[in-house]
User: What shape does this take?
Amino acid sequence: MKTLVTGGVRSGKSFHAESMLVGEPSVTYVAPGPEADPQSDPEWAARVAAHQARRPGHWRTAETHDLADAVTQAEGAVLIDCLGTWLTSTIDELDGWDSTLEDWQPVLMQRLDEACSAIAAHPHAVVAVTNEVGLGVVPEHRSGRVFRDLLGLVNQRVATECDDVLLVVAGRVLKL
Assistant: This one.
């Protein structure tokens, strides 16, 4: 079973995704976002620590930007949290914030295709968490528009590999 869990910030999507796999004997938690540095970003470090604290002790954590490899190498179920942080890390790595989209989008799309192939081929449950950022206003800054537009594409592409897409709003789960 492959599931995409989407929703707004603090909607309960990560908690719900984790609860879907709590009974699995083997889970790899893929954390593809930026590393937590309490010195430079204490708020981000606190968020990461809260996620770590509520994971069962037997879950393995893979902190990597190589989403396809992490899913391919995982034994048992996989929880990816989250696609938005993966996208941010990938854009950072490709120096995409200050260059034209045409310079690096093909590499991003190739990595996305590889990740989707790995998700589709994984023999166990995969739950991917993402943000729904397309319900608000058009961002004022280019970086916000690029992120919003690309995350929409990422979400659509991953959803094609999933059996279910769930929308979490105020802790309530809607099956789409």
